[in-house]
Amino acid sequence: MEFFYPPGATPLDPDEAAGLIPIHITTQSDLNAWEQMNIVQGDAWAAKQTKRELLEEGFIRDLHNKMFGNTWRWAGTFRNSNKNLGVDWTQVSVKLRELLDNTRYQIDRAVYASDEIAVRFHHQLVWVHAFPNGNGRHARLMSDLLAMRLGRPRLSWGSDSSNIHSAGQIRVQYIAGLRAADQGHIGELLAFARS
């Protein structure tokens, strides 16, 4: 199978691509549809985790596995190679721990409004880029869960987060918001997250 990546997406290396579980998938559109069904299952699982702490490495891994475990053998496993973005793969666990600790601090001390905490968390989780693939979709769901735990509704992510991974204007706005946040300007991503 040949993989096609929208702008800003993380390409899989050959070993990661070989981790595709369903053997009937032969096109990118088939893969996208299969992954979306798996993500819906992960979302349903996450909705039932009302007593579980979100800001723990175990939950981060479990959610990724629930979102992609029927698609990829490596789902829920941190990447072991460098990508076109993200921290050095050897630093994933350390940087994730720092992010989780910093986010707990922001919540405990009400450093930012709830939406901003969730969006800053999203930006940093994408920056860590813990997994071989699916990081943006995983980070959006994690941020939605965090916003809801903080008493806010899900973030809207340009009103159609199910299609944000495909090429198009919504993805262009999303990537622009992430890049602005990389430069310390969170406002564009925060506005997009509630648009």
What's the alpha carbon Rg, rounded to whole Å?
16 Å
Strand content: under 5%
Distance between the termini: 35 Å
Helix fraction, binned, reads: 40-55%
Largest sheet: none
Count of discrete alpha- or pi-helical segments spanning 4 or more residues: 8
The assigned CATH architecture is Orthogonal Bundle
CATH top level assignment: Mainly Alpha
Instruction: Categorize the overall geometry.
Output: globular
**Domain count:** 1
Q: What is the overall pLDDT average?
A: 93
Element order: H for helix, E for strand: HHHHHHHH
Task: Point out poorly predicted stretches.
Answer: none
Which short descriptors sum up this protein?
Fic-like fold, 8 helices, 195 residues, mainly alpha, 53% helix
Written overview of the protein:
The protein is mainly α and 195 residues long. The protein has a single domain (14-193), classed as Fido-like domain (Fic-like fold, Orthogonal Bundle), CATH 1.10.3290.10. Helices cover 53% and strands 0% of the residues. It has helices at 14-17, 28-47, 57-68, 92-108, 114-128, 135-149, 169-182, 187-193. Helix 5 runs antiparallel to helix 6 (135-149) and helix 7 (169-182) packs antiparallel against helix 8 (187-193). The model has no long low-confidence stretch (mean pLDDT 93).
